[in-house]
Amino acid sequence: MQKTLSDLPQIQTLLGLPTIADVIARFSHAETADALREIIAGLRADLRAGRAPLFPDFQSMEFAEALSARIEVARAPSLTPVINATGILIHTNLGRARMAPQAIAAMQATGAAASNLEFDLATGKRGSRHSHVEHLICTLTGAEAAVVVNNCAAAVLLGLMGTANGRSVVASRGELIEIGGSFRLPDVIAQSGATLREVGTTNKTRVDDYARAIDADTAVLLKSHTSNFKIVGFTAAPDRRDLARLAAQHDVILMEDLGSGVLIDLSPYGLPDEPVVADILKSGVDLVMFSGDKLLGGPQAGIIAGRADIVADLKAHPLMRALRVDKSSLAALEATLRLYLPPFDPVQTIPVLQMLSAPLAQVESRAITLTDALTAKGVSGVALHESAAYVGGGSLPDQALPSFAVSLRMPDVSAQKLTAALRAQKTPVIGRIERDQVMLDMRTVWDAELPAIVAAVEQINRR
Fold first, then answer.
1. 437 located within any domain
2. For the purposes of burial, counting CB atoms within 10 Å of the CB of 71, is it exposed (0-12), middle (13-18) or buried (19 or more)?
3. Which of 317, 344, 371 is the last residue of a domain?
4. How many domains in the chain?
5. Peptide bond before 343: cis, by omega within 30 degrees of 0?
6. N6-(pyridoxal phosphate)lysine-modified residues are where (predicted)?
7. Residue (of 173, 231, 163, 165) closest to 197 by Cα position
8. What global pTM score does this model have?
9. pLDDT of residue 52
10. For a Cys-Cys bond, which of 268, 361, 422, 461 suits 429, CB 3.0-4.6 Å?
11. Which residue ranges of the chain lie beneath pLDDT 50?
12. What is the pLDDT of residue 228?
């Protein structure tokens, strides 16, 4: 007999069943009630739509087990590890840079016990959280002083609020960038309380353009590294050293937002246009801001480095408390920065730099291993391809890195459905779609992740 709305049981009745009481004891009354409401609501929606849903046996152990499984799924962590097979090394949506084991260990140690976050062990008095990484940053960049906030956007905002509030900021039209999340530099300047004075044109800006814009209200000459786009052809931009001399002549601050920022020369690995922070400061830039979780390879953080007097003012700014970095991020950043010092080689110890510098033969070998393993499991439609990987994270989006990828095709399964199935695995596998096939790029995959990929694809192939 076809069921009707009147056949739907009351939630309180279901909660009183002995089998459901066991579910309540295992989880909680509230979770069990919520799960039951969702099930009844689904049945009610089907009935009202004219569909004939199959009613479960609410008193059975099978229903109780299904209810428990539903609650387990709801309890599963929302933030979970995934396998990045996109070929984008610093994928913003996938958490940006992987951190080194030393950084993860430092976070665990700091989080598992009390720490000297703001306690001076030598004097027994209150200390500063800024002291834990400032010396390291100065050692690696040549800066007089440094401070860390929770991301680079915060660093730019604090830097401008602390130096140019109520005054003007001169910036080139060709450098008024927008990054992910609609973060627009002109909006940040306005939010800081400063007035933007645009100079030059989209493709050409000269020192004279900055010079003509400087007046009694000018506080900052602002440069921004346009790492996420390129203007080519008939272009011109002033040398930092010339801007530094101009800023000094007029007693204004030269500030640069790097966005990403690197501590070592990455040109041997295909990134010739990423300026090294130490070189920027040597050229005369007063203050530079860069990220901790991009090419530096650490946690999310915004690093401000440069003149001691400016940094001191920023440390004392009221906004600092709202933007300050937490203890776990500080621990991870300190551990990451130490990997740039001897006897360590950052290219060999920091994951994002390992991926960037990995020889093409090594990437190809990984792709061959995956192809052979999938073929041995009876997965058809597997092929090896030359590929192009990218740094990502707003850094040099058009700078391709040679790579190898494994393509997947399955009969009667579209590429869209296959990527969805890979995302639904216990350890989600995130690839990309090219020419109606799923591509798994091996430059962003570790050898240790290959078994999980094989297991995921094999399970999908069995369906």
1. yes
2. middle
3. 344
4. 3
5. yes
6. 294
7. 173
8. 0.90
9. 87
10. 422
11. none
12. 57
Round the average pLDDT of the chain to a whole number and report it. 93
CA distance 418 to 408: 9
pLDDT at 237 (0 to 100)? 85
Is residue 126 located within the same domain as residue 210? yes
User: For residue 96, is it within any domain?
Assistant: no
User: Which token pair is 252?
Assistant: 């204004």
Do 62 and 203 lie in one domain? The reply is no
Residue type, 199: V
Are residues 26 and 57 located together in one domain of the fold?
yes
Characterize the bridge pairing of strands 253-259 and 287-291.
parallel
